[in-house]
Amino acid sequence: MSRPLILVTNDDGVHAPGIMALAKLAGEFGEVVVSAPSQDRSGVSHSISLHDALRVFEVRPGAWAVTGTPVDCVYVGALHLCDRAPDLVLSGINHGYNLGSDVYYSGTVGAAREGQLRGCDALAVSHDRDASLDGVLPHARKVIAEMLAAADSAAPPVLLNLNVPREPVGEAPVVTRLGQRIYRDKVDARRDLQGRPYFWIGGPPDAAADGQEGTDVWATRRGFASLTPLALDCTAPSLDRWRTRIAGPDFDEVQAAPLQS
């Protein structure tokens, strides 16, 4: 029986220390193919290059640099670089948390989500900027082992988001919901040497923001590694507000209506 095939990617670039550590860890569990951006592509979310040519270079045995986004890397990796469908997609280890609403901006999570869209179980791994990779690996190892042991080809693929603090408490992550990560947002207006205006956007996270109990923000603030299962369906929990405000036909009536040509 062949070993599991694991596709490893990130958004920090193919030469980042985090992806090298993650690829080495993945090698404990199966065959590894690395497909990662040729340069840092942090914050590009689920961007895909539909109107630009992609170039692919082997940078070390089993590892390819792709001149595109993290999603491009998973797309090319799964459909071209791998000789069969991957059993697992790993993304990271990202230098910095991906908590709360970060998952909508993160290239790390975007790449893992693309793995899920391609029918693979997927894990995004991130850590506090002051944490060492050695502190992250035991938690990642535990999650990867469990994902492979629980793999079920008949079940929908899963997407997990792991965040590890500087000095993690305990030997296993706690399971959390997405929280709300607060940033001190600003637009910094500047001028270049020619006097032309330009802008830097963004700001650091609010270190004092605690987060709601049971969320990833709350857990990591208390030193716990956080594991958050994510879903593709972003539909609001309740549709009733819009059913009452916008009076369309009942769904039963829609199903019973004849199809239009």
Structure report:
With 261 residues, the chain is an alpha/beta fold. The protein has a single domain (5-180, 210-256), classed as Survival protein SurE-like phosphatase/nucleotidase (Stationary-phase Survival Protein Sure Homolog, Chain: A, 3-Layer(aba) Sandwich), CATH 3.40.1210. The protein is 28% helix and 25% strand. The protein contains 8 helices and 11 strands. The protein has helices at residues 17-26, 70-81, 102-105, 107-117, 133-149, 216-221, 240-245, 251-256, and strands spanning 5-9, 31-37, 56-60, 63-66, 88-95, 121-127, 159-164, 169-175, 187-191, 197-201, 224-230. It has a 9-stranded mixed sheet, sandwiched between helices. Strands 9-10 form a two-stranded antiparallel ribbon. A hairpin with a 2-residue loop joins strand 3 (56-60) and strand 4 (63-66). Helix 1 (17-26) packs parallel to helix 5 (133-149) and helix 2 packs parallel to helix 4 (107-117). The longest helix has 17 residues, at 133-149. The termini are far apart.
